[in-house]
Specification:
3 helices; alpha+beta; Threonyl-tRNA Synthetase, Chain A, domain 2; about 50% helix; 4 strands; four-stranded antiparallel sheet
């Protein structure tokens, strides 16, 4: 698989995980691949219910964000291994609700 094909497959899987969890795709995403890491930056639409609560009780929405991120990472890792056969060691992810930006780092067990 070429670097471009791999990027497209990673974007497809990532978008599908987003659709499965949130019922909508990503606005935009970019993928960079360097040796044993894949970095995805993605523009997400904030979950409306969480956006409504952010200004009132950010602590609670932060706990929910962390739970959502944990489930997303678990699903993304599983799908990347099953669908693309990537040797995924770990998936790290954070989300900035103010700018609706997520960064995901996929650490592989071996360089690509």
């Amino acid at each position: 698989m070429t670097g471009i094909d791999l990027k497209q497959e990673v974007m497809r899987v990532n978008n599908n995980v987003n659709i499965t969890m949130f019922g909508t795709g990503l606005r935009k995403q970019r993928v960079s691949i360097t040796e044993d890491k894949i970095v995805i930056s993605a523009d997400h639409k904030r979950i409306p219910a969480l956006a409504a609560l952010d200004g009132i009780d950010r602590t609670t929405t932060r706990f929910v964000d962390v739970a959502i991120l944990d489930e997303y990472k678990r699903r993304l890792k599983k799908e990347l291994i099953e669908q693309i056969k990537l040797p995924v060691k770990s998936v790290l992810k954070d989300y900035d609700p103010e700018h609706e930006l997520a960064i995901t780092v996929i650490v592989l067990t071996a360089p690509m």
